[in-house]
Design goal:
- Strands 1, 2, 3, 4, 5, 6 and 7 form a 7-stranded mixed β-sheet that branches.
- This protein is an alpha+beta fold.
- The model has no long low-confidence stretch (mean pLDDT 96).
- β2 (43-51) and β3 form a beta hairpin.
- It is 25% helix and 24% strand.
- The two termini are 26 Å apart.
- α2 (73-84) runs parallel beside α3 (112-125).
- It has helices spanning 20-32, 73-84, 112-125, and strands at 11-13, 43-51, 56-60, 90-99, 102-103, 130-134, 139-142.
């Protein structure tokens, strides 16, 4: 039997260490949390996607009393970006979340379904998509979703 070690590279920083472009995305993601519809979880998530043409598209989580019918902020944002700008790769995605009236201290990480959609968005754009996960205590910068989803399922898996 062999053992496989998988390493993940994540940069940890504070808001003032971000580039102007990254700050803009984080600010847009934070603003998008105020457009969330989250009456059941009271967990308000916003996302902001930077497209290669410089456009920024935002989205927020949308809940439903039938929980599986809701949609996460990341998928709302990426599906809208791909629908409105089908030929524009997404180069970065910022995610922020708040609850109990304040932004969370830890980083807001995408769920498994969103990670799969982010992976497909990378493939569609033919380039890595930088993730910026905002938390009041720290911010994570990840150069590709493959860092968070190392054993991914993609078109080659359909084989």
């Amino acid at each position: 039997m062999k053992e496989l070690n998988i390493n993940t590279k994540i940069k940890v920083c504070q808001y003032d260490e971000l580039t102007q472009e990254q700050k803009l995305l984080v600010d847009q993601a934070k603003e998008a949390t105020f457009r969330s519809y989250a009456p059941y979880s009271n967990f308000f998530v916003g996302a902001a996607a930077l497209l290669e043409n410089g456009e920024v598209v935002t989205g927020s989580n949308q809940e439903n009393a039938a929980y599986p019918s809701g949609l996460c902020a990341e998928r709302v944002t990426l599906f809208y970006a791909n629908s409105k700008y089908p030929d524009q790769p997404v180069t970065a995605l910022a995610i922020a979340a708040r609850t109990n009236g304040d932004f969370i201290n830890e980083c807001a990480a995408p769920c498994g379904a969103c990670r799969q959609v982010i992976l497909e968005t990378e493939y569609r754009g033919k380039q890595p998509l930088q993730l910026i996960l905002f938390g009041k205590g720290q911010i994570y910068i990840i150069d590709s979703i493959k860092e968070l989803l190392p054993l991914y399922f993609d078109k080659d898996s359909l084989g």
